[in-house]
Design a protein that fits this description.
16 helices; 7 strands; binds flavin mononucleotide
């Protein structure tokens, strides 16, 4: 998610679940090929498994980007066929590609030809006045024939004119049944559902009928939910016994990044929602919101924020003085 799932966010999320597949922000082919590649594609070895999402519609350029990303160690390359922003439409990629299924098929085939890692597509059920029955089926047929390894479906339409990107995540109604029907019609194609999934119980219900669930806003805004992924969906312990111990495990990373010149807030902004129902959660947020943004804020600001939170489950439980 643009501006959200940067490398700091992904490193943090990986402390909360070992098994969930994590996605980068969308990066355009132009940025990969002509931009500051080392910075844009940087990721920590701890992030694996991590997928790079690319925006573009030129098969040769997408193939080149896929090869670059695979060489850098990304575990999956995902093509964005769902973003409705004006900028993306001008570049003729994102959701408007729902109207060009053959081109999407060519893109997938070109990307697949260059890499061994899975190539996946994230799409909508349709755009504008398309009929989702036909539009999603035709796109699926094209990418399946091209050898796509999975299809992630944001289960609502995008309206390319008249709605902002934010409204396009909220206004068009969700249609989970359309995604279920797609899976029934393509039983061998891994189909992943996205859109409006707010909790792990909901995810588990979808997983009875589908191959995967992608959580966006809920995972970012309420990262404590990620601590349930390994126990509830994979039958293994969460990496840390409590949110507070997970936050403490971030300290070496924060110290490393601060030493490299990264601002504290660039990392802690992703952590504000970590504590739920924990005494001190609000004080933690408030402390970081005021202290971590100050120029020169260092690890002491993070430690002080953490000291305001009671550890309900961890071995180091204590009642803070504040
Ligand atoms: C701030 C923000 C940035 C997003 N950026 C991307 C993106 O780069 N690529 C993408 O495929 N979807 C992006 N999305 C859409 C989400 O991936 C997801 O499809 C959408 O929010 C619906 O899922 P959710 O209800 O679980 O959040 C973004 C969403 C938000 C809120």
């Amino acid at each position: 998610m643009m501006e959200w799932t940067d490398r700091h966010c992904r490193f943090f999320h990986r402390l909360l679940t070992r098994r969930a597949l994590i996605y980068t922000e969308m990066i355009t082919t132009g940025a990969v090929l002509h931009g500051d590649r080392a910075r844009l594609l940087a990721h920590d070895p701890a992030e694996h498994p991590v997928a790079l999402q690319i925006g573009g519609s030129d098969p040769a350029k997408l193939a080149q980007c896929a090869r670059i990303a695979a060489d850098l160690g990304y575990d999956e390359i995902n093509l964005n066929v769902g973003c409705p922003s004006d900028r993306v439409q001008e570049g003729r990629f994102g959701a408007c590609l729902m109207a060009e299924p053959d081109l999407v098929g060519d893109c997938v085939a070109a990307m697949k030809a260059g890499v061994r890692v899975p190539v996946t597509v994230k799409c909508r059920i349709g755009i504008d006045d398309q009929d989702p029955e036909a539009a999603l089926e035709i796109l699926t047929g094209a990418v399946e024939q091209a050898g796509v390894d999975a299809l992630i479906v944001h289960a609502r339409k995008a309206w390319l004119e008249g709605l902002s990107p934010r409204e396009n995540r909220e206004v068009p109604p969700l249609d989970y049944d359309r995604v279920y029907r797609l899976k029934a019609a393509h039983p061998t194609l891994p189909v992943v559902l996205n859109g409006g999934v707010t909790g792990l119980a909901q995810a588990a219900a979808h997983l009875k009928r589908l191959d995967g669930v992608m959580m966006g806003r809920a995972a970012y805004q309420e990262p404590w939910r990620l601590m349930d992924v390994d126990p509830m969906l994979f039958g293994m312990d969460a990496p840390y016994v409590s949110a507070k111990t997970a936050a403490e495990a971030l300290i070496p990373y924060l110290e490393r990044e601060l030493a490299r010149g990264t601002r504290l807030h660039a990392i802690t902004r992703h952590i504000l929602g970590l504590f739920r129902g924990v005494p001190g959660a609000r004080a933690f947020r408030r402390h970081l919101a005021t202290e971590a943004v100050k120029p020169g804020a260092d690890i002491a600001a993070f430690r002080a924020a953490l000291a305001l939170v009671v550890d309900l489950d961890g071995a180091m439980a204590h009642i803070p003085a504040a």
